[in-house]
Amino acid sequence: IYADNKLIVTFQNLKVGKGIKLSRSLVTKVMSLFVDLIPEVEMVDMRQEISEGSNAFLSESLKKHLLGTIKKKQQAILFLNRRGAHTSVICQKCGYVLKCPSCGISMTYHSANNRCICHFCSYSIKMFDACPECKDKHIRMNGYGTQLVEKQLKEMFPDIRVLRMDMDTVTNYLSYQTMMDDFAEGKYDILLGTQM
């Protein structure tokens, strides 16, 4: 594969030797080049941050790095594997968890339309004010989805331009391409997205 006038050999091709006869030493040299491309990863124990009083979804380290990136006039991409606002809806009194009647999986609350949606079969219902089981009004929403993270990013960093890309905002290929072009042109500082 050629990209930016450089020959890129996929790991699979190197491993299997498809179409190319390479010595073990050459394979080792090429593989060592890819090691420098792997970003540094920092593991953060969010339990410790919560015990210190933080209720944010972002660690202090990630906030610091995001701000540093933006100050350098660079862009950041955040991936979150959940769309919607909250990943589950639970009654605090009786423990009822809202599940899809068809699939049996937890339904996700979407704040944009005040609905709970099954991300497997697309069944949806309007968000309720009281628990369907015990009628108590103390309903708790757990977990973070892209809608909530987008809202909180905008509250934390009011001057930062956030682009959310998920199945709720990308309606077709044209909207996808427009969003990608806008991000590439620097119209947004942070791209927040899910796998689509």
Give the structure's gist in a few sentences:
This protein has 196 residues and is an alpha/beta fold.
What are the main properties of this structure?
6 helices, 196 residues, alpha/beta, three-stranded parallel sheet
Task: Indicate the topology.
Elements: E1 2-3, E2 6-7, H1 11-16, H2 24-35, H3 46-51, H4 60-71, E3 76-79, E4 88-91, E5 108-110, E6 115-117, E7 124-126, E8 139-142, H5 146-156, E9 162-165, H6 173-184, E10 190-193
Parallel strand pairs: 3-10, 9-10
Antiparallel strand pairs: 1-2, 4-8, 5-6, 6-7
Average pLDDT, to the nearest integer?
84
Structural class: alpha/beta
Q: How far apart lie the N and C ends?
A: 25 Å
Question: Which percent range describes the beta-strand content?
Answer: 15-25%
Beta-strand segment tally? 10
Oligomer: single chain
Helix/strand order, N-terminal first? EEHHHHEEEEEEHEHE
Unreliable residue stretches: 1-19
Helical content stands at 25-40%
How many helices does DSSP assign? 6
Rounded to the nearest angstrom, the radius of gyration is 22 Å
| Major sheet strand order | 3-10-9
Major pleated sheet: 3 strands, parallel
Q: Globular, elongated, flat, extended or rod-shaped: what is the shape?
A: globular
